[in-house]
């Protein structure tokens, strides 16, 4: 009886050890690739609890999440012979767990090296203006260059972004002077255009005033009023004879003529 109990306990212990060695848990964002005696099994284990043959099968878990990988800054010379330093970031994920394990030794390292090589190639094929202002098109070209070999590794490139473009200090100063000269040119053009419009308006105003001499006198009086409003200067204004003649025609004779006195004649010009 005791021997039977011992045999049962030993068998139960063996089953527990076997079950512990065979039990595996695959997380929701993972997939399990099984190798049986070194040969790849066609069925990829999904998330949840799964069993393998101990000492026969080997389960390798592959992360299916999107990986964010920074691309180290690369030094290069652009097509217009400018030395720049460019860094980027790449987003990718595994779409075929079996291919990612079998076709490449380390898919993360392979994608990183391919991204660095492609980034240097993009720098050599592009102008400085494209790197600074046309990044969207460069990102698409960089993504296509990396995605072409990555498809055979079971990896899909989601997005590639150029983060920063570092320029030498001499180039920064040259670009600053260029921008300053461009803004000065625009300011001069705007000022010249304003002078042209003002001269046209002044010519139109002069033409209108030449038809009505009284308008010129009224404009002179408005200027005097505007200057006198400051009250901080002395104004010396010659009194034109034309203004006296205008006042003479505009004022009735009875209002300025005293009784028993004769109106003095107004001297000519």
Briefly characterize the structure.
The chain is α+β, with helices and mostly antiparallel strands. The chain is 52% helix and 22% strand. The chain folds into 3 domains: 19-63, no CATH class; 67-171, 2-Layer Sandwich (Tetrahydropterin Synthase, Chain A); 211-255, no CATH class.
Can you give a write-up of this model?
- The protein has 269 residues and is of the alpha+beta class.
- The chain has 3 domains: 19-63, no CATH class; 67-171, 2-Layer Sandwich (Tetrahydropterin Synthase, Chain A), CATH 3.30.479; 211-255, no CATH class.
- It contains 9 helices and 8 strands.
- It has helices spanning 2-22, 97-102, 107-125, 128-133, 135-150, 169-211, 213-228, 241-250, 253-256; strands spanning 23-26, 30-36, 39-40, 48-51, 57-63, 67-77, 83-94, 155-166.
- The chain has a 3-stranded antiparallel sheet with strand order 3-2-5. A 3-stranded antiparallel sheet has the order 6-7-8. A two-stranded antiparallel sheet has the order 1-4.
- Strand 6 and strand 7 form a beta hairpin.
- The protein is rod-shaped and about 150 Å long.
**Main sheet properties:** 3 strands, antiparallel
> What would you give as the CATH superfamily of the largest domain?
Band 7 domain
Total number of helical segments? 9
The fraction of residues assigned to DSSP E strands is 15-25%
Roughly what percent helix? 40-55%
Which class of secondary structure composition applies to the elements? alpha+beta
CATH topology of the largest domain: Tetrahydropterin Synthase, Chain A
What general form does the structure show?
Answer: rod-shaped
Order of strands across the widest beta sheet?
Answer: 3-2-5
Whole-number average pLDDT?
82
* CATH classification, class level of the largest domain: Alpha Beta
Organism: Streptomyces aureus
Protein name: Slipin family protein
Family: Belongs to the band 7/mec-2 family.
